[in-house]
Amino acid sequence: MLAMPRDLATAQAELDEARATLATLQEQVREGDDTVTAQQLADQRELIAFAELRVEAAQRTETRIREDQRAALGAAAKQAAEHLISGAGMDEIADATRAAVDALAHLAALANKRNAQIAEIGARLLQLDNDLQAAGEVSGPWGSKRYGVWGDRTRVVVPGVGDVVPIEVGALTVTAVVAGLGATPEGRQAQTEHAQRFHGMRDQVVRSLLDRHTQLADVLRVSGEEFAAADARGRYELSEQGRRPAAEEVPA
């Protein structure tokens, strides 16, 4: 709420004082004080009437000031909104979104590569175990321990050194999102929205966002080559998300 203008506060105080003085004079008359004259009462009433006019004038001035302030606030808000509607800041957001997508894809690719290496080592160890069992050199699993290593596709162990297990790529990317959004109130709210929107209606959420913000759609739409290389399910999901390229961009 806007503060009462100084002139109005002063005028109201003068009016209150004048009314209080009249009430005091009137009470003196009631108590039999014959020093109070009719002229004093009349003068005080005129003073009150004048003070009331000053209050009314101050109120009108206040109304004009408040309207000017509201008009200024409204004009500033309109100008700021028009600036955003014209796309201000969206180029930076689109670039950052593209960078975040590329970084997440790179992160997932690195994790998948590491997981594939673990699976390959594990497969070799399983083959080694099978060969040792077939040769009758061992009767149980993990015969490869004689070489200082054992494991399978889900875990490889080097005794005395440590072990290695695949990274859950989904958990890794969720961790990146959570850490990136941060622990501020805004970050926690975004994390809640992420959890709520990602499950069930994922493709529709993506399409709705990209339909609303076309600059994001421009940077997240896949190329014709990427669309053609995707399997049937992938092409369907890209279409549902509004990320498929124009038909003429897809190689025949």
Unreliable stretches covering 5 or more consecutive residues: 1-5
Rounded average pLDDT: 90
Strand order of the largest sheet: 1-2-3
Q: In one word, what is the shape?
A: elongated
Let me know the number of strands: 3
Main sheet, how many strands, which sense, barrel?
A: 3 strands, antiparallel
- The class by helix and strand makeup works out as mainly alpha
Question: Could you give the distance between the termini?
Answer: 66 Å
Percent strand: under 5%
Helix content: over 70%
Order of helices and strands: HHHEEEHHHHHH
Radius of gyration in whole Å, from Cα?
A: 40 Å
Task: Enumerate how many helices there are, as a single number.
Answer: 9
Concise synopsis of the structure shown:
By secondary structure, the chain is mostly helical.
Care to describe what's here?
By secondary structure, the chain is mainly alpha-helical. Among the domains are: 6-85; 89-167, no CATH class. 71% of the residues lie in helices and 4% in strands. The chain has nine helices and three strands; from the N terminus they run αααβββαααααα. It has helices spanning 6-30, 38-85, 90-134, 169-181, 185-198, 202-212, 214-220, 224-229, 232-240, and strands at 150-152, 155-158, 162-164. Strands 1-2-3 form a three-stranded antiparallel beta sheet, with helices on one face. The longest helix is centred in the N-terminal third of the chain and has 48 residues, at 38-85. It is elongated and about 135 Å long.
Characteristics:
mainly alpha, 71% helix, elongated
SSE arrangement:
Blueprint: H1 6-30, H2 38-85, H3 90-134, E1 150-152, E2 155-158, E3 162-164, H4 169-181, H5 185-198, H6 202-212, H7 214-220, H8 224-229, H9 232-240
Helix pairs in contact: 1-2, 3-4, 3-7, 4-5, 6-7
